[in-house]
Amino acid sequence: MSIPASAVIPLLGQPSFVTLQSHVLSEERRQPGHSGNLSWIISALAIAAKTIAARLKNAGIEDVLGEIGTQNVQGERQQKLDVIANHLLIQLLGTREGVAVIGSEENDELLLVETEANGGQRYAVLFDPLDGSANLDVGGSVGTIFSIFDAPKGTEQVLQTGRRQVAAGYVLYSSSTIFVLTTGLGVHLFVLDTAVGAFIRVQQHLRMPASGTIYSVNEANAASFPPGYQTYLAQCRDAGFSSRYAGAMVADVHRVLIKGGVFMYPPTAKAPQGKLRLMYEANPMAMLIEQAGGMASTGRQPILDLVPDELHQRVPVVLGSTGNVQALLDLLKSA
Ligand code: P6P
């Protein structure tokens, strides 16, 4: 007697659950000529995320907090967990077939990976291993952000526009550990079930609100924002918006993705090109936001259309609900 799959689940008394792994495998199988290498890469990112989440949960008990006394290529003081997360990602990705090049916020140069090719696609993986790590000592949210490009010829194919990403996403380490992913077929959310040790899909094809009443920006820099930004923020305050800012891009963007509104890091006196990095912060977030029906701009053009000059270049960022972002862009144009 054959039982339809749909009838089996109630028999087992379990809700049907799809893991990150099975989701990615089924998506990759829809790509012509797939080799499974992209699934392998996302599997490595998931293992790194689970390991980082475990270390974060014990931070303070384990001696992993605080600075290590060195600076990264950005001139930012490195936290111990920045280095731990970075080494972990490089180690896991460096042994995955299909990874040709690795780029990290923590490393000045690109890393060439010499795994023997298995004849499948080869990729460049760029990441910010622990975004917002200054929040660690105060128990705040942090995240990992990643961007994946086709790179059959290695390094010469890393500096592509964000439009060419084949996958992008982030991990938010907060009240729960949330893996948010797009491979160009919509935005999907997975939550780490620590009892099972797997990321379980909780939402598919997320669509963000067309507008929102939350703005997210470091207002301490407001005096040096270009005029259009200042006008927009004054309009938000007059309209009774709420201001929310975690100081970690992953946490602030996740809030906008779920609740709508706008996140921005405008040009400032200290950072005339903005502070956020194009290749492993702005581009992946822009792909996710556009895939969820929102907008992501440098203030002058879509982030995903910007042709990069170098791996660590910075860019102003305005992203979120189309209604909010368009209203700001209109003011920037008329300023
Ligand atoms: P500020 C964290 O250092 C980060 O790179 C992003 O995660 C975050 O959005 C931004 O910088 C915060 O910068 O100048 O407001 O502290």
Question: Can you describe what's shown?
Answer:
With 335 residues, the protein is α+β, with helices and mostly antiparallel strands. It is built from eight helices and 15 strands. It has helices at 5-12, 20-28, 37-57, 80-94, 227-238, 249-259, 278-291, 322-334, and strands at residues 67-71, 77-79, 99-104, 111-112, 123-131, 142-150, 165-173, 177-182, 187-193, 198-203, 214-216, 242-243, 262-265, 295-297, 317-320. The protein is globular, with a radius of gyration of 20 Å. The structure holds 6-O-phosphono-alpha-D-fructofuranose. The site of 6-O-phosphono-alpha-D-fructofuranose has 10 residues, from α6. The site of 6-O-phosphono-alpha-D-fructofuranose (P6P) has 10 residues, from α6.
Bound molecules: 6-O-phosphono-alpha-D-fructofuranose
**Count, helices:** 8
What is the CATH class of the largest domain?
A: Alpha Beta
Unreliable residue runs: none
Shape: globular
Name the CATH superfamily classification of the largest domain: Fructose-1,6-Bisphosphatase, subunit A, domain 1
How many discrete structural domains? 2
